[in-house]
Structure formats: structure tokens, C-alpha cells
Amino acid sequence: MAGSFMGRAPLLFFLLGGGFLAVVNRRFGTPHWLLSFIFAVSAVSLVLAGNRVETFAIFASLGGIIIFVPVMRAALRLPRSHPEVIARSALPLRGAMAVVAPVGGLVLCLLTVDVLLVDLGTRENGWFFLGVFVLWVVGGATYAALRLGRRRAQFMSRTSG
After folding, report:
1. In Å, what is the CA distance from 159 to each residue of 66, 107, 150, 154, 155?
2. Distance separating alpha carbons of residues 8 and 108, to the nearest angstrom
């Protein structure tokens, strides 16, 4: 259902982060891969930032803001793709507000990203962090696309044969 209102690329990215890395360990009941990955990226980032917490904070803020972009896109598509979900919600946005709220949120996200990128560009090693972030996003999306393609091929072979 999420794919019908999120779109393919955001859904793949969401599935990679939420589905693959967030698998809960049976023994300890924790998402150890995700926690280990966050720890490793944080430790390496802090070392590369030369103990400049401001650069690391900007980098982390970018990740926190960018995740809202597919959410705003999904919010725009939801009334058309699943009106029954909107009808059941406690406070449904109707009419112009169903468009104004997510578009306004998207504009604010993009403005915040722009401000953070300008600030990041003024920091020592700032562009390096941006490159790492972009590579991580592209790598995650590529991995998710390959995995989805493999699963789709397995499904097709099971249903046709």
C-alpha cells in the first residue's frame, strides 16, 4: 500500500533503511545493524570533522530534514490514491489545505536544506561530508532497487512455473 502513494524511489529508500537495517535481533530485541551503522557513521564523521561538532550537526540535520521530502510527496498523493484513509483520519485536510500543507512543508524542507548546504560549504571538510551523504543515498537506493528486482524475479518465477 505504501508504494501506491509514496512512489517507487522513496519507497525503495524507505524499505532499505526501515526494512533491511532495522531488522530486530532475536536474542537482544534491538535493531543492532542500524544502531551499529549509525555508531560507525557518527564516529567516522566526527573524526573526519576534526572534532568540529558543528559540521557533524549540520550533516545530521540534513539527514533529518531530507527524510521529510518523500513524506510530503506521499501526503500530496494520498487523497487521490487512498481517499478512504483520509476519510478515516481524525483531522482530514480537505480542499486547498490538502495541497497547501504538504507543498508548504516541502518548500520549508527545501529551504532548510539550502540553508544547511550553504552553511556546510563554509565548514572545513563540509563538501566531503556532503559527498559521503550523497554516495550513501545513491548506494542505498541502488541496493534497494537490485534487491527489489531480485525479489520480483523470484516472485515471477514462482507464479509462472
Report:
1. 38, 44, 14, 9, 6
2. 23
Cα–Cα distance between 54 and 122 in angstroms, integer? 11
Give 64-75 pLDDT, tens digit per residue: 887 788 888 888
Cβ-proximal residues to 70 (8 Å cutoff; 6+ apart), any chain: 6, 7, 10, 11, 13, 14
- The domain segmentation of the chain, as residue ranges, is 2-160
Residues 78-108: pLDDT tens digits? 888 888 888 888 888 888 988 999 999 999 9
pTM above 0.85, yes or no: no
